[in-house]
Amino acid sequence: MRITRVGVGYLLVTVIVAIAAVNTGNNALFLIEGGLLSLLAVSGVASRRNLRFLDVRLGRTVEVHARQPFSIAFDIENRDRWLARRFLEVTGPPSVQPLVLPYIGTRRVRRDRLHFGFERRGIHRIPALRVSSIFPLGLFLKGMRAHTDLEVLVYPEILPLDDPFRLALGQAGEEAVPRKGSGHDLYALRLFRPGDDPRGIHWKRTARTGEMVFMEREAEEGRRLSILLDNAIGPFGDRESEERFEHLVSEAASAAVDFMESGFEVSLTTRSGSVHSGRGSAHRRRLLEMLALLPVLDFDPSPLVADVSEGEADRELRLGAGQPRAATG
User: Fold this and answer.
1) Which of 23, 27, 141, 221 would disulfide-bridge 2, Cβ 3.0–4.6 Å?
2) pTM for the model
3) β-strands 64-65, 140-155: how paired?
4) In this structure, are 179 and 141 located in the same domain?
5) Which residues contact 295 (CB under 8 A, 6 or more apart)?
């Protein structure tokens, strides 16, 4: 239980009236003092009652990045069949913005969202939320802990890539090459042959010539980006070195997300492991999870080498102490 500013003022008035009543012996002042103390007792009982029969449930988290606000849906249920709940404040760790719920009816569930924000990547735990009652007078904040046991995996911060960074890596999507394949651009028209895919028939030309005409497409050559992040650069002697490493991790995550959205296949190589080339939401999640949990290892002077099973990538991005920011393949 915590006293509020209004409660401090109320207690001061109560003490002043009590001193005046004792010194003067005025019955009216004693009646006023009795009323003030009775109201204080009623406020405490009502506030305690306002917290009973409450259940709090947190929903699932979505993709969460450091230094990026996000929200989590939650339900708070009033299981009391007789009395509604009024003026409840929901708070938690410093990363949670307080939320005030003015009213929850009897046997009702109130659905709302809590807004969070984490400064660092990695696993963050929210063991419990605090539900406090401001009702009825706001003199005290009487609270209870609602256990949630929620774990949130926070991905690295996504930074906007500047133009020199993009130009250094020569960012481009899939490019057509002058040979047959399964792309989208037209390569040539020819007569239909047994075994050809019927979906490739050019129906307008077929109707015009009276013969089955098949469309050959140009092949599309996927572009690949290989990210090499050297995390064997510790231990850190100051906060500035740690912040530089976190910035490198954010740059790796930002490049991976940006290039995958542009059609690249992206791979990641670190001292702690690697993620092979790929694209799509599942590959994006695996890559960001590895970066979110990437530890700092003791310094290793040997150069970091890409996984040989990956083959040669079109573009290569090296991040680490004393390494160039970007290099083209």
Assistant:
1) 141
2) 0.71
3) parallel
4) no
5) 231, 272
Identify the pLDDT of residue 238. 85
Same domain, 294 and 167: yes
- Give me the amino acid identity at 148: T
Helix axes 281-292, 239-261, angle to 10 degrees: 180
In which band, very low, low, confident or very high, does the pLDDT at 166 lie, cut at 50, 70 and 90? low
- How far apart are the C-alpha atoms of 185 and 144, rounded to whole Å? 64
Query: What tens digit of pLDDT does each residue of 72-107 get?
Result: 999 999 999 999 999 999 988 887 888 999 999 999
Q: Are 156 and 326 in contact (CB under 8 A)?
A: no
Helix (H), strand (E), coil (C) string for 262-305: CCCEEEEEECCEEEEEECCHHHHHHHHHHHHCCCCCECCCCCCC
Distance CA 202, CA 212 (A): 8
Greater model confidence, 244 or 181: 244
150 & 45 share domain: yes
* Spatial contact of 283 and 260, defined as CB atoms under 8 Å apart: yes
Q: Which domain holds residue 284?
A: 163-171+223-328
The answer to whether 289 touches 152, Cβ cutoff 8 Å, is no
Q: Which of 315, 246, 308 is nearest to 274 (CA)?
A: 308
pLDDT of residue 218: 54
Which phi and psi (to 5°) does residue 310 adopt?
A: -80, -20
- 129's CB contacts (< 8 A; 6+ apart) are 56, 58, 74, 90, 91, 92, 96, 114, 145, 146, 148
Q: Are residues 123 and 149 in the same domain?
A: yes
Which residues, 6 or more positions from 10, have their beta carbon under 8 angstroms from its beta carbon? Answer: 36, 40, 137, 139
